[in-house]
Design goal:
The complex is a heterodimer of chains A (432) and B (163). Chain A is of the alpha/beta class and 432 residues long. Chain A has helices at 19-24, 29-36, 39-49, 61-66, 91-98, 100-114, 128-143, 174-181, 210-222, 224-228, 262-268, 302-307, 326-340, 346-363, 369-378, 390-414, and strands spanning 77-82, 118-123, 159-164, 205-209, 231-233, 236-237, 239-246, 252-257, 278-282, 316-321. Chain A has 16 helices and 10 strands. Chain A has a 4-stranded parallel sheet, with helices on both faces. A 4-stranded mixed sheet of chain A has the order 8-7-10-9, with no helix packed on it. A two-stranded antiparallel ribbon of chain A has the order 5-6. In chain A, strand 5 (231-233) and strand 6 form a beta hairpin. Helices cover 41% and strands 11% of the residues of chain B. Chain B is elongated, with a radius of gyration of 18 Å. Classes of the chains: A alpha/beta (432), B alpha+beta (163). Chains A and B meet through strand 3, strand 7, strand 10 and helix 13 of A and helix 2, helix 4, helix 5 and helix 6 of B.
Chain lengths: 432, 163
């Protein structure tokens, strides 16, 4: 499918990592355009574009910006959420490693729009290469007058700092991230107040995902109408990065208009690994409910996936073929959530662990039908009753396992088929 | 815990670097994560009770606050680690493309269970959560570098080359 590369246009073009090279491709024109607009006009343009957050929740970006109080005697902050830790997600790393200035430009535009003179890019600690590239790009931007006391000579001050996380999924949650930025354990805060009013260091703060801020750059450059014309409808707009992994021929980051179908996406990845049959797929990272071969014509956008009982999330598409034991796959995600639960709220801390224990029992062949029933009774109590959405996220894959594969698992349990034979990806020979 | 550890001086260049970072933040406490990263790197990849106490003293924080933060994050190590630290991603996308087999191989080649340092101090390995490299699965982070699209043979070669 041939569509214009917008967000990934500089991928593979090493020169774009410098201000000079980035400018050759039209870079920083959007920023200079934004600085000639009133801040409120920039917010309005983003609102009109229909841009929804690319980090997972899909919250309208312009609306988020408009929540920041205009007349307040406090510093305001932009925080770029680059703590990309949702299993299956690697799109933001690509954007930062190949086109750091596209992100910096979006950060400064956001700062101008809401009146913030500082951006913190909170990047996961493991992304050492992206961190070095961003830091080099920031140095260059200061040298070229793009950052600092007078952005592009406008008199508007903006500073950008990279802040490294240290390995905790929960720091991708907005208020967990803020706690971590402030030097604490990354435990989510009680909301309200929301970060737009009381965020980093007690000040109004906008938190946006890397890809979201990259979209901002293009919306300002080409207009809300252009952005809106891409995608499914006025609620699902713009270009989108899909990070595809698992059992496909060519895993990778693919840019498409938001709302292409899973079938089309799979085609662009060269189809299923070794032409095997599809067993299950996850459309939006570990937090999203699994779908099956019956759902291949589903459009990959926010609203269509929500209607299908799943979510677009971070658009991390994980594909599993017929050799996969879906209980074992779900167990791996349950282990992840049990490990990453911050422990503050009992339903999440205990619930994620119980889901892990029961799935382990079933997958390993020590389970019985009553474990499946117990699992079904635990799942509804894990989410919706905690400070943040981690518990809800942990429910996603397990709920769908029960809904889509419940009968199959019950049958396997009756026939004592677990553990299912595993098809190794590699033959280790004598070692195994 | 028994008596508090005596702080050892942090290397001068670490203190200097932390001081350089001060203007970036409105609070001193916000320097804690950057300071711990620097202190850990200067201490052979782990944070001893003494280095935590030194960071606490430098940033005027209770030692317990520092220890609480260290225990929260997977990248901070309150126990000694190997000279080379191997983090094998074993989350779903890597598992679907051979991470389980690579874990078997690591245990076999290094001769230690996960989390244990080899007797010669050369390496330690852990299975780690998603490292954001799922399109190049399976993969491992060794020290600060990503090793992607791994095969058993490649992993054996990389292990053999670790000093």
């Amino acid at each position: 499918m041939a569509s214009e590369r917008v967000l990934t246009r500089n991928v593979g073009r090493a020169a774009a990592r410098t201000v000079r090279g980035y400018r050759e491709g039209g870079g920083y024109e959007a920023l200079s355009r934004a600085l000639r607009m009133q801040p409120a006009e920039v917010v309005e343009e983003i609102k009109k574009s229909g841009l929804r957050g690319r980090g997972g929740a899909g919250f309208p970006c312009g609306m988020k910006w408009s929540f920041v109080p205009r007349n307040i005697d406090k510093p305001k902050y932009i925080v770029c959420n680059a703590d990309e830790s949702e299993p299956g997600t690697f799109k933001d790393r690509l954007l930062m490693e190949h086109d750091p200035h596209q992100l910096l430009e979006g950060c400064v535009i956001a700062g101008w729009a809401v009146g913030a003179s500082t951006t913190y890019i909170y990047i996961r600690g493991e992304y050492t290469v992206a961190t070095a590239i961003l830091e080099e790009a920031i140095r260059d931007a200061y040298d070229q007058g793009v950052l600092g006391a007078s952005v592009l000579g406008s008199g508007f001050r903006h500073d950008i700092h990279v802040h490294r996380g240290a390995g905790a999924y929960i720091c991708g949650e907005e208020t967990g991230l803020l706690e971590s930025l402030e030097g604490k354990r990354g435990q989510p805060r009680v909301k309200p107040p929301f970060p737009a009013v009381v965020g980093a260091f007690g000040c109004p703060t906008v938190i946006n995902n890397v890809e979201t801020l990259c979209c901002v750059t293009h919306i300002v450059q080409r207009g809300a109408e252009w952005f809106k014309a891409i995608g499914t409808d006025e609620r699902n707009t713009g270009p989108k990065l899909y990070a595809v992994s698992g059992h496909v021929e060519r895993p990778g980051t693919y840019e498409h208009p938001i709302g292409i179908t899973f079938r089309e996406l799979l085609d662009s990845c060269g189809g299923m690994y070794k032409g095997r049959a599809l067993k299950a797929w996850i459309p939006g990272g570990a937090s999203a409910a699994m779908l099956t071969a019956a759902d291949v014509d589903t459009q990959l956008d926010f609203d269509t996936l929500a209607k299908a009982g799943s979510m677009l999330g971070s658009a991390a598409v994980i594909v599993m073929d017929e050799t996969t034991c879906v209980v074992r796959a779900t167990l791996r995600l349950a282990e992840f959530f049990a490990h990453e639960s911050c422990g503050q709220c009992t339903p999440c801390r205990e619930g994620t662990n119980w889901m892990r224990i029961l799935l382990e029992r079933i997958a390993s062949g020590h389970g019985a039908e009553r474990d499946l029933d117990l699992l079904a009774s635990v799942v509804p109590n894990v989410g919706g009753i905690s400070l943040c959405a981690l518990g809800d996220a942990a429910q996603g894959p397990v709920k769908s396992l029960l809904a889509k594969f419940g009968d199959e698992i019950r049958d396997n349990l009756r026939q004592r088929r677990y553990p299912l034979p595993q098809v190794p990806f590699f033959d280790l020979g004598a070692v195994a | 815990m028994s008596s508090p550890a005596t702080p050892v001086a942090l290397p001068a260049e670490v203190v200097a670097r932390i001081d350089e970072l001060r203007p970036r933040y409105p609070t001193e406490e916000a320097l804690l994560l950057p300071a711990l990263h620097l202190a850990q790197a200067a201490n052979g990849g782990w944070l001893s009770a003494e280095s935590m106490a030194a960071v606490a003293e430098l940033l005027h924080l209770p030692v317990a606050r520092v220890a609480g933060v260290v225990s929260f994050y997977d990248m901070f190590h309150p126990q000694p680690v190997g000279r080379h630290r191997i983090r094998l991603c074993t989350n779903l996308s890597c598992q679907l493309r051979g991470a389980n087999e690579l874990a078997v191989l690591l245990r076999h080649e290094l001769g230690v269970e996960k989390g244990v340092v080899t007797p010669d101090g050369r390496a330690s390995w852990v299975s780690f959560e998603c490292l954001g490299s799922c399109d190049t699965a399976p993969m491992a982070m060794i020290d600060d570098a990503y090793h992607e699209n791994l095969t058993p043979d490649q992993l054996r070669r990389i292990l053999a080359e670790l000093d």
